[in-house]
Design the sequence.
């Protein structure tokens, strides 16, 4: 099915978006989020085939990572920016992925006539889309959700939430107005807006005193890539929303709220100081409780999971998270962990997590096995699950498949990612067959992987470092973002620590290169 996008509905199409990946969108993570909320997963058998749709898939990188790591799934990505879809298709083709297709569709046209060949999906996700588009496009998008979601399926919506953006609204307003009034290219508009707000801050403008969030947002904006800023601030429809607004809109298509995929927030409201917890709990409805809770924590980004309300409302008692498998993503040192969440910094002392980490060091274990560890039994099931939720949120562990996927598709994609990243493309994840998801990879690690693969794995640390030094780093031979000179020690750390970890996660095959 081919659709051409001619009208961008106020969406700024002047710059391509970033290549990010969000583990909360992986099917296993979504299933776990539902189960932790006491609801049934989309699949009772975690290895069963499934269909997955991403609406507004951007550059398609996240969906390609998921498709490579889940060959039992069929993936469809939709986006109306031709450059995004072209990039997504090029990645899928270069990686040899056969279980994914991309469509250059517009939500408005799709809502009018849902393509017969799309059918329904077990998972429908949208990240960074819902609060970026105008109300009529949102209405169309909600209609698409109704058409697309299978009964028992899960819908993930990641969106900018209030009240965390209230302090930024003046920056958004003036940036958008500058664009409309000045007729300058979007990148110049963003720079002009930053310059203007710098002058306002230096001059002591009252708004900065009244809105402390404005100052911190301006500092954050200066650290962000210009294509991210254009997509974040310049679209006509960009508008952070309250949970209640989203929940009421999607209810029009029969979707009800299941829970959050921001797993640290499953500790709420219990983790709030008692008076605030009581204030949240005494509210008369779920949407009021969540909006008041978001007021307490100054929420700025929500990852809500919904599902069609007619079926599977709650867990029948026979589907529990115990069967889900957890994997260690990175080494843990020291005797405490400081975990930043949307509501506070939580310090976990080693006795709370050390046993989990050392059990996982040997390979993936099911949640049931981890709950049976002596220290976890002492914590009690509810506390132990909260510890796991925090470790998942901190990307220290990942939730993954019960049986690793065949690694062939992952190898093709990861080879492509390493090659492109070493030319300066800002890819930052590798597909991981054990996880059914992806792992973070730094620019330097991807460059090392590329050189190691080119040498078919027969290379020592010194030669690996020398090979990286010989290769031009960015597009013009200049270091790309995040790349540094590779020393033999750095290359040795890659060979001795990073590669074995990636092998365990199925990002690199045993015995590959
Ligand atoms: C901020 S980007 C997020 C992209 C991606 N989900 C991610 O997180 O990397 C929003 C995406 O929604 C797409 N989009 C916006 N309006 C759309 C519409 N009416 N139909 C289809 N795609 C749309 C844009 O092209 C863009 O790729």
Sequence:
């Amino acid at each position: 099915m081919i659709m051409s996008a001619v009208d961008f509905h106020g969406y700024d199409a002047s710059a391509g978006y970033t290549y990010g990946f969000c583990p909360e969108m992986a099917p296993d993570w979504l299933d776990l989020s539902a189960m932790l909320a006491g609801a049934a997963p989309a699949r009772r058998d975690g290895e069963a085939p499934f269909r997955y749709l991403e609406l507004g898939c951007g550059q398609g990188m996240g969906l390609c990572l998921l498709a490579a790591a889940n060959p039992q799934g069929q993936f469809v990505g939709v986006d109306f920016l031709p450059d995004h879809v072209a990039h997504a298709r090029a990645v899928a083709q270069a990686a040899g992925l056969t279980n994914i297709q991309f469509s250059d569709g517009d939500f408005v046209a799709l809502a009018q006539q849902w393509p017969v060949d799309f059918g329904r999906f077990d998972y429908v996700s949208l990240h960074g889309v819902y609060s970026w588009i105008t109300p009529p496009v949102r209405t169309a998008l909600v209609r698409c959700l109704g058409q697309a979601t299978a009964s028992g399926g899960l819908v993930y919506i990641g969106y900018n939430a209030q009240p965390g953006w209230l302090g930024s609204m003046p920056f958004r307003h003036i940036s958008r107005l500058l664009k409309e009034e000045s007729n300058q290219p979007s990148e110049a508009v963003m720079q002009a807006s930053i310059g203007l707000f710098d002058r306002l801050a230096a001059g002591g403008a009252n708004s900065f005193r009244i809105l402390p969030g404005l100052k911190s947002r301006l500092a954050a904006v200066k650290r962000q890539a210009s294509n991210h800023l254009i997509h974040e601030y310049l679209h006509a429809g960009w508008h952070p929303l309250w949970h209640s607004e989203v929940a009421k809109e999607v209810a029009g298509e029969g979707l009800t709220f299941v829970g959050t995929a921001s797993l640290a927030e499953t500790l709420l409201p219990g983790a709030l100081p008692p008076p605030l917890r009581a204030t949240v709990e005494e509210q008369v409805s779920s949407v009021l409780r969540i909006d008041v809770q978001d007021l307490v924590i100054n929420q700025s980004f929500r990852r809500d999971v919904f599902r069609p309300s007619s079926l599977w409302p709650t867990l029948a008692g026979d589907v529990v998270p115990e069967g889900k498998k957890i994997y260690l993503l990175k080494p843990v040192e020291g005797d405490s962990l400081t975990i930043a969440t949307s509501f506070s910094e939580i310090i976990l002392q080693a006795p709370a997590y050390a046993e989990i980490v050392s059990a996982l060091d040997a390979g993936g274990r099911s949640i049931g096995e981890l709950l049976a560890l002596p220290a976890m039994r002492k914590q009690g099931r509810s506390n132990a699950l909260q510890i796991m939720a925090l470790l998942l949120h901190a990307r220290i562990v990942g939730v993954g498949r019960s049986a690793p996927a065949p690694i062939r598709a992952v190898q093709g994609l990861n080879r492509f990612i390493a090659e492109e990243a070493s030319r300066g493309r800002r890819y930052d994840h590798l597909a991981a067959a054990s996880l059914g998801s992806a792992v973070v990879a730094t620019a330097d690690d991807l460059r090392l992987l590329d050189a190691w693969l080119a040498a078919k794995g027969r290379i020592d640390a010194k030669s690996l470092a020398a090979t990286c030094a010989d290769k031009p780093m960015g597009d013009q031979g200049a270091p790309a973002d995040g790349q540094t000179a590779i020393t033999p020690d750095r290359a040795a750390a890659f060979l001795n620590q990073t590669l074995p970890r990636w092998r365990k996660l199925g990002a690199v095959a045993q015995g590959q290169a």
Remarks:
- The mean pLDDT is 91.
